[in-house]
């Protein structure tokens, strides 16, 4: 009896290329299901290649997040579509569909563009200026919170507007932020929950 050959393990760059190709190919598919395809990752889980599809509601202002039923339904339809996909059918992989989380980092231009109009929080993860780091007693920069009102991919700049009327003390209006290394942009649904009840 002949042993089944073990599939070649993909290198990180090959996994990244595969993930980008799958995202491009299945973006419109998820849109027809009522979801925004936040991203696709190709990673190994227990030695098995897994394509992880992170989805959100197409209506980003929907009060309901992604449910288990959403993930299950999307997975079933995705598996049916993959069976018809001649190129993907040649690969040996598992599929996982889920939500990237409520307070997630917005990393890509497509995410920043999609979430314009959503509450965000911006923090600096690390000091980028080595001279500044050496000064003792320097306070850590305070997070900027507000509504992501614009994103410009060419300049890597976002504009934050106030989420008025907001009960959050550090809500800023009309602030431009350059997305330099160490700048973290996360969704901040807490802002909307803090609004006073009228």
Percent helix, as a range, is 25-40%
Radius of gyration: 20 Å
Major sheet: arrangement of strands: 7-6-5-4-8
Beta-strand portion reads 25-35%
Q: Could you say which overall geometry the principal axes of the C-alpha atoms support?
A: globular
Q: How many separate helices?
A: 6
The N- and C-terminal alpha carbons lie at a distance of 75 Å
The string of secondary-structure elements, in order, is HEEHHEHEHEEEEH
Unreliable segments of 5+ consecutive residues: 127-135, 164-172, 191-198
Number of strands: 8
Structural class: alpha+beta
User: What average pLDDT do the residues reach?
Assistant: 78
What's the main sheet like?
A: 5 strands, antiparallel
Can you describe what's shown?
By secondary structure, the chain is α+β, with helices and mostly antiparallel strands. Helices cover 28% and strands 28% of the residues. The protein is built from six helices and eight strands; from the N terminus they run αββααβαβαββββα. The strands form two sheets. The protein has a five-stranded antiparallel sheet with strand order 7-6-5-4-8. The protein has a three-stranded mixed sheet with strand order 1-2-3. β5 and β6 form a beta hairpin. The longest helix has 21 residues, at 12-32. It is globular and about 50 Å long. The model is unreliable at 127-135, 164-172 and 191-198 (pLDDT under 50).
């Amino acid at each position: 009896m002949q042993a089944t050959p073990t599939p070649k393990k993909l290198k990180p760059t090959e996994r990244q290329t595969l993930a980008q190709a799958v995202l491009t190919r299945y973006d419109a598919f998820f849109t027809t299901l009522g979801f925004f395809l936040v991203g696709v990752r190709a990673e190994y889980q227990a030695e098995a290649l897994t394509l992880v599809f992170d989805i959100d509601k197409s209506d980003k202002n929907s009060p309901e997040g992604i449910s288990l039923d959403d993930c299950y339904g999307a997975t079933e339809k995705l598996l049916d579509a993959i069976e018809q996909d001649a190129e993907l059918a040649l690969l040996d992989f598992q599929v996982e569909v889920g939500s990237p989380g409520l307070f997630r980092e917005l990393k890509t231009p497509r995410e920043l563009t999609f979430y314009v109009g959503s509450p965000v929080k911006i923090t600096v993860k690390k000091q980028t200026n080595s001279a500044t780091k050496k000064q003792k007693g320097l306070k850590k920069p305070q997070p900027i919170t507000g509504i992501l009102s614009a994103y410009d991919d060419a300049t890597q700049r976002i504009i934050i507007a106030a989420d008025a009327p907001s009960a959050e003390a550090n809500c800023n209006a009309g602030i431009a932020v350059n997305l330099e290394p160490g700048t973290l942009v996360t969704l901040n649904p807490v802002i909307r929950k803090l609004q006073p009840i009228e």
